[in-house]
Amino acid sequence: MLRWYRSTLEGAGLAKFGALNVLIFALLVSLAIGAIAGSAAGIPAFGFSLSVGTFGFVLEMLALRAKARRKALASLWPEVIDSLISAAAAGISIPESFAELAEEGPLALRPYFAQLIRGFDSGKTMLEALQALKVDLGEVHADRLIELTKVVIEAGGEGYVSALKSQSQMTREGLALWGELESKQGWVAGTAKLAVAAPWLIVGMLSTRPENSVVYASPAGSLILFVGLVVSIFAYRLIGFLGGLNGSPRVFA
């Protein structure tokens, strides 16, 4: 779970804020929303359930942001690899090829490559600068390219162009296959998650009436809400297990 959280945070581009800081912020927001709702409705169990649901919603939004950002960045890597192949074939050094990407590469990636060059110019070794870039990007294709580049630097550049060409082909094939799978499966999981949230929206609407609020605030009503919370969590996790598409693992993360 901790590894998933850190990887998702990197994928969402929020690692710079610190994993603990983001987690504390999410918890505080969740507790505040639950406390306000529970106090307004007069139903402590509903407030607690809403806190848990809000925290899960924040994690879901974080995962969706990471997914969207990784998808956007992944589509750019074939262009990046092609640029590196051209630079290597022309005899340009690896630092210079990344400096060229910072100026003429894909717009979304230029700031990351510029940060890489600034780190290198400030005294970091190229390996250290590449490692920092990997954390900033938090994307599996970036991991592979960076690890390949690190190996080439340590090996003296042998086989760099051929390895880049192989990676370029694998990246394009992988992106095409993943796009087909995602388009077919994504709407199914999304609909199922909405179905999990729907009963809680109904509870929230019903609790606005005083007579319903009294029932939900009773021991029996609170027990029903807690049981419903457990069932919802189980259903959400089951949807993720059965309906989710796990991308290529970040082996080099």
Question: What features would you describe in this structure?
Answer:
It is elongated, with a radius of gyration of 24 Å. It is an all-alpha fold and 253 residues long. It starts with a helix and ends in a 10-residue tail after the last helix. Helix 1 packs across helix 3 (44-74), helix 5 (94-104) packs across helix 6 (110-121) and helix 7 packs antiparallel against helix 8 (140-155). It has helices at 2-11, 19-41, 44-74, 77-89, 94-104, 110-121, 126-137, 140-155, 160-206, 210-217, 219-243. It contains eleven helices and no strands. The protein has two domains: 2-74 and 185-243, no CATH class; 77-174, no CATH class.
